[in-house]
Amino acid sequence: MRGDDHHDAPVRAALYLRVSTGRQADSDLSIPDQRRQAKGYCASHGWGIAADYVESGASATDDRRPEFQRMIDAATAKPPAFDVILVHSFSRFFRDQVQLEFYVRRLAKIGVRLVSITQELGGDPMSNMIRQIMALFDEYQSRENAKHTLRAMKENARQGFWNGALPPIGYRIAEAPEQRGHRVKKTLEIDPIQAETVRLIFRLACEGDGSSGPMGVKSITTHLNAAGIRTRDGGRWGIGAVHKVLTRTTYVGRHRFNTKLWKTRERKPEAEVVEMAVPPIIGSSEFEAVQTLLKTRSQALTAPRIVSGPTLFTGICFCAACGGAMTLRTGKGGRYRYHTCSTKARQGETGCAGHTVPMNKLDTLVAEHIERRLLQPARLEQILSSVLERRHERVERRTSHIADLRKRAVEADAKLKGLYDAIENGVADVSDPMLKDRVSELRAVRDQARADAERAEGALDRLGPSITPQAFKTFARQARKGMRAEGGGYRRDQLRALAQRIEVDEKEVRIMGSKSALLRTLVAVSSAKTAGFGVPSSVPKWRASPNKTANTYVIEIALCSQ
User: What's the predicted TM-score (pTM) here?
Assistant: First the structure.
């Protein structure tokens, strides 16, 4: 190694300058001060400066720092690019005692020293021990600071204030009405334009786009990209981003803070998580309905063979006791056919006490009750009242949103006209760069507002016509007619559009269906798009024992002994 200033060849020094937070980096106070002191130190020792490495806003608790790694690569090159790494203090290099010693020894092997301006030490054993003690103290202090900072941020979140970072899509950062201390607190408020995208994603998941059933994450992603609906930064949607929107409790007013370790991204225990109150974008019932759909939906849908199976209720009939599928069994040489619990059939009564019902009895019982109890105008109106109310609210909200967008476009257009008039009259200088930026900004606002309004109007059209009392009568009449086959039996595909799950208990049968699917078929009939009503191409999987949700209707039938 080269010596100090009394050698012929000057020592080549690399300056490593670091600030630990983005706030320090933005204010640009610490880096210039470190550079000034480092240059003075080199000048007083007669050292030359070979390079400097500036790390803005990076923690020294690990070595995942771009400039740090670039410096180490230069130091370990053959020959090394410099003889000394000069830092303001050892904590600028590392705040982890083990890592500090690892790199000090690694550099020493290739003849490169680590020197601190404010903590000058030699290379003897005593100096090494002092450096290690200093590093231990720095590490302890770093952890304590992090602990206190996190504690303050958690309390800040509990009080409803935003701690920084990019807010979830659908929200924007706003200044809190009151100021606490010398800093202006921040909160989240709803971004009216982006919030509509969030509402659309939930609506697609819960009800579909008017021509389909509830859509999965992949289908929603495809729909958004095909419709030209972009993410906040103008990019295309991905499956992960859509799934994150659908599962984020922020949208029902409960933003979860401190959920993961920032280094490893591992989940923290629930006791460490803080919920911050924010304005809700989605209703709780809609959010819970979507969570249920996400849990019950497998990677795809049940196989098409289930829809085209040999019996009326293949794939949708289950034992209420164990949740197992009801399977078809025959007796008396095939003369009699029964629905029986598959668990009982495989394992006997030790697996499940199970239930067995003659196939014709169950088929007739279910079909007749759908005809008599579901397909009545008054009953349909009662079942669909909640989803119709939500539909009406969406129409009103979207209509208001379209009006706001049109108003925004008109205002931007008027401002543009004013600027053009000013240019034409010689009042404004056309070469002024600020004027050009303002014109570009207003054009972007106008064009975006127009495009968003057209997209919202298209979505409004896809909702279909309003549902009238006559629409209920027409639908009930056509549905009853469509269920009957020419031979006097029942049409399996039409029944499946009305009942997606049948549970057989000891004393009753429960018929379950989706209110959203029922509404879609009703709208299709009202729109005169189809002579009958919607038929699913395949049946979504349900959980073994699904709970009744706001989007589910249930018809209970007493199962009398034969």
Answer: 0.40
